[in-house]
Design the sequence.
């Protein structure tokens, strides 16, 4: 299956103020984010970290791989978790789920109206937000994630004994 709007979604994200591709969360904070999402959505998504360059990704709808160099941020974690909620790659359902996660749980809480306008401006297709799993699960009782400093936290070093 072809992921026809993958690059459009990445370009859209990169143009948004809430998207930070720098590792400002610790690994433990990332685990807490996923633990909280798992509790909300009644899932068992596992989180792993990898050094080196490359992409972050979700696979089998139950595991997320995050790059230590740039992926430990709320926006990247929410993006990858949205993949665990849908089989839609970067299609309309994925975008709708991701936007609902951002709106309810990202510290910046971008407004739905702003998200819709920015998506329309760059011609990214999305489905009805009202029919998402997030809409069914999330409400005002779930507070957004803690607003933390976005100063880059260096990646963990592995020391090899000689």
Sequence:
């Amino acid at each position: 299956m072809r992921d026809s709007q993958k690059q459009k979604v990445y370009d859209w994200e990169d143009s948004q103020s809430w998207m930070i591709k720098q590792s400002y969360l610790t690994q433990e904070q990332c685990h807490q984010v996923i633990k909280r999402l798992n509790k909300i959505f009644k899932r068992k998504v596992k989180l792993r970290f990898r050094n080196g360059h490359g992409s972050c990704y979700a696979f089998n709808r139950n595991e997320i791989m995050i790059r230590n160099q740039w992926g430990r941020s709320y926006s990247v974690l929410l993006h990858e978790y949205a993949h665990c909620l849908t089989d839609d790659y970067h299609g309309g359902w994925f975008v709708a789920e991701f936007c609902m996660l951002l709106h309810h749980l990202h510290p910046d809480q971008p407004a739905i109206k702003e998200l819709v306008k920015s998506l329309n401006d760059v011609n990214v297709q999305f489905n009805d937000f009202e029919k998402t799993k997030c809409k069914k699960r999330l409400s005002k009782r779930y507070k957004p994630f803690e607003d933390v400093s976005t100063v880059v936290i260096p990646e963990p070093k592995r020391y090899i004994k000689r």
Observations:
- The chain has a mean pLDDT of 90.
